[in-house]
Design brief:
327 residues, Nucleotidyltransferase, domain 5, 37% helix
């Protein structure tokens, strides 16, 4: 059976999805990146391989996420796409008639506006981490609450307190102040969930026409407290897909299928990539005033990828044929 592999490597998590020709998810993996994207991706590919049935064969692979260039080189991706495109494609495939996508991950958040199956607008958070998964993890840890119980605790709130959520630093300070005033933990947690949703809508969603159906995806969608806060703020029920945590990977897999259908072949290296020793390094190009930092990947003493230069001087020195020759 033909299957397609989607890879989404971010700063917090590495997600892999295996879909069939109809876009149905056969297997998925969600791993913490832990600052080691190559090793985590290799581990994830090994886990997917072990779950595959004998008659399943990978006919294409796609990569997305903040480390998509790196993931594309390691796995041999047929297509490398930005997160906006991948998440939109996944949402359209999973939820009929979707108009708005709310996506909150470990380090970033984004909103995607879709009309008639086409992305017409989008926005991402800038420098503030308030409202992202890593901030929630940090605050749950500070309160001594397992992150898995954070959302359920918010549902037990009687009177959610108002937390200043515009900035991660101010939000934490305000939480401490509310604790010192004697507010219940449940009320503080619920207040934090509502503050993070306000921050998201006022910054990422500012000026956007948010209309239903609204899909909420990304790792933070697991938090039922945040879901409830979105329902309350938007006055509509947000839809959380069954595979909300690996939607980027699903989108990458669907894009890979479309790409391979046009090209007729795949660059996927195979699952033995787990045994390859990829070595990343960087250098500063002094060819002009831009002083670009160029990233390069070595495999078996040969350079298989370079990127980061604005002019393409170094990137264009590595051809797809050379990459395949080292596979």
């Amino acid at each position: 059976m033909k299957t397609y592999l989607g890879i989404d490597v971010g700063s917090v998590s590495t997600n892999i999805a295996l879909v069939d020709e109809n876009g149905q998810v056969l297997e998925s993996i969600y791993l913490r990146t832990m600052g080691q994207p190559i090793l985590t991706l290799q581990k994830g590919l090994g886990l997917i391989r072990d779950r595959m049935l004998p008659d399943w064969e990978v006919f294409g692979a796609g990569a997305t996420g903040s480390a998509r260039r790196l993931a594309g080189v390691v796995a041999g991706a047929d297509v490398v796409k930005n997160e906006i495109t991948a998440h939109a494609v996944a949402a359209i495939s999973q939820v009929s008639g979707v108009q708005t996508v709310l996506e909150i991950g470990g380090q970033d958040s984004k909103i995607i506006i879709i009309r008639d199956g086409i992305v017409v607008d989008f926005a991402m958070n800038t420098v503030c981490a308030a409202g992202t998964g890593s901030f929630l993890d940090q605050q749950a840890s500070r309160l001594g609450i397992p992150i898995e119980e954070f959302g359920d605790l918010a549902l037990g709130a009687q009177v959610p307190v108002r937390i200043a959520g515009r900035c991660a630093v101010f939000a934490e300070s305000d939480m401490i102040h509310k604790q010192q005033l004697g507010h219940r933990t449940e009320d503080i947690v619920a207040g934090l969930c509502e503050a993070l949703v306000r921050n998201y809508l006022n910054n990422v969603g500012k000026g956007k026409e948010i209309t239903a159906p609204v899909v909420f995806q990304g790792g933070v969608a697991a938090n039922i407290g945040i879901r409830q806060a979105f329902n309350k703020a938007l006055r509509t029920e947000v839809t959380v897909p069954p595979r909300f945590d690996v939607m980027g990977a699903i989108g990458a897999a669907i894009l890979a299928q479309e790409t391979v259908a046009r090209s007729g072949s795949t660059r996927f290296r195979g699952f033995d990539v787990e045994e390859h020793a990829f070595r990343p390094s960087s250098f500063e190009c002094r060819g002009c005033a831009n002083m670009c930092e160029v990233i390069q990947i070595d495999l078996r003493d040969r350079i298989v990828a370079r990127w980061g230069d604005r002019c393409g001087k170094w990137e264009n020195t590595v051809t797809p044929e050379e990459v395949l020759a080292v596979s």
